[in-house]
Design goal:
This protein has about 170 residues and is α+β, with helices and mostly antiparallel strands. The chain is globular. Keywords: 2Fe-2S, Iron, Iron-sulfur, Metal-binding, Oxidoreductase.
Length: about 170
């Protein structure tokens, strides 16, 4: 005897478009985006929250979508790397990634870009990281700070020096 699978109606805004879907309560946000809404910018890398390829912005804050239940995001605004640009122009972080050649295979790039955008917001808000020396002052965006704050996003092609350069460029337009 099988029990019915619990399902819930979820309304979620993704990259400026509102969607209402009925989903199994066990579906992750990543699977909702990719398999139900066909939003393919966030990638399924490890599916264990260790690589950051699936990073998206939830109401402006970075989140690992493979570890986030979709039902918990009812009413949330999700922004993927594809939803960052306004109009036809790339977001300044996307431009910096292109100009600094901050990708090779590109698989991790959408997650890297979302994480970098949120990371700059965290720095602007004065949030310290593990390597911030002076907790009384606003964090200085050194290469060490960038690397620490981006440590949850892995790049199997090892484009890290260019990723750091791109973030530095976007932080200082």
């Amino acid at each position: 005897m099988n029990s019915p699978v619990p399902a819930t109606d979820v309304t979620i805004e993704v990259d400026g478009r509102t969607h209402t879907v009925r989903i199994d309560n066990r579906v992750t946000l990543l699977d909702l985006l990719r398999e139900h809404l066909h939003v393919t910018s966030p990638k399924k890398g490890c599916d264990h929250g260790q690589c950051g390829s699936c990073t998206v912005l939830l109401d402006g804050r970075r989140a690992i979508s493979c570890l986030t239940f979709a039902v918990a995001q009812d009413g949330t605004r999700v922004t993927t790397a594809a939803g960052l640009p306004e109009g036809d122009a790339l977001h300044e972080m996307q431009e910096a990634f292109v100009e600094q050649d901050a990708f090779q295979c590109g698989y991790c790039t959408p997650g890297q870009i979302c994480s970098a955008v949120a990371m700059l917001d965290e720095v602007k808000a004065g949030q310290p990281s593990f390597v911030t020396e002076n907790l009384e002052a606003d964090p200085e965006l050194t290469d060490e700070e960038i690397r620490e704050r981006m440590s949850g996003n892995l790049c199997r092609c090892a484009a890290y020096p260019n990723i750091v350069a791109a973030i530095r460029q976007a932080a200082n337009p």
